[in-house]
Amino acid sequence: MKNILVVGSAGQIGSELTLALRDIYGGDNVVAGVRKTKPSEKLSGTGPCEVVDALDKNNLKKVVDKYKIDVIINMAAILSGTGEKNPMLAWDVNMNGLINILELAREYKMKQVLVPSSIAVFGPTTPVDNTPQETILKPTTIYGVTKVAGELLGDYYVKKYGLDVRGLRYPGIISHETEPGGGTTDYAVAIYYEAIKNKKYTCFVNENTRLPMMYMPDCLKATIDLMQADFSSLKNHCDYNVGAMDFTVAEMAESIKKHIPEFEISYEPDFRQEIADSWPNSVDDSPARKDWGWQHDFDLDKMTADMLKAIGEKHEKGLI
Ligand code: AKB
Questions:
Q1: Which residues are catalytic?
Q2: Distance 186 CA to ligand 1 centre (A)
Q3: Measured distance CA(174)–CA(52) in Å, rounded
Q4: Which class is domain 175-213+246-279+298-316?
């Protein structure tokens, strides 16, 4: 039996991953680590919740001791947009938080650590189409720099200490449960909320911006499948490319117009355009498909239908 701690449980991925893991391993065996003292009812009502600050090793240690934690998932991160506004904060949270977790996992000989990475590890000199697994990693954002360092650090703990550390390079993740914050790909979530609420959206990157994206059910599947894969089948550890779909903002708008014909989109690119332009259009994830059987389910139109339905229901209930 595993006792899992999800650090960053209140975030976009952490909130849904915690619930999905509780369904599999039982509510009591998955601790939600949150920064806020008041977690959502969904989190506090389905299993233990603790205030966890990855920058405070003593605090981490207390939670690990209390629940006999043997698996840590580190979903706490400062994303690309916020990182450019506050590079030192991004370095502190993304690197010092990670090293605290890895050190604790090493000291306690834990069963597994999951350290997510991102397409932000790539940069303007990386091949943009079908970006290979092994390629140039020269990001131009501090977030990307921390993600490259995080991948290398995780791989180092595998090699040096025999710790089971795994990670995948998430594309932009799209979901309707918890909104993302501070990322460059956040427009791909905001567009759906604005389509439902106001039937129009002003996007902070231009219409031709194409990025790799993934719908949350696929993100949860990829994360859990990688966690459950046989360690001996993994040729990589902390840096698996995972893809599902890629599209431009204009293509997203067209997909939304199939449901809301009056939807209007306009463009006011800001500093995040340069970040988006430094990332790939699409990634080659054949190693993930080969090593641990990764397969995605959602394409753009299937996701759009689902997103608009779920956000539409929230709107009708007055929740947004
Ligand atoms: C961001 O936009 O910063 C993140 C990411 C792609 O890792 N969503």
A1: 143
A2: 8
A3: 25
A4: alpha beta
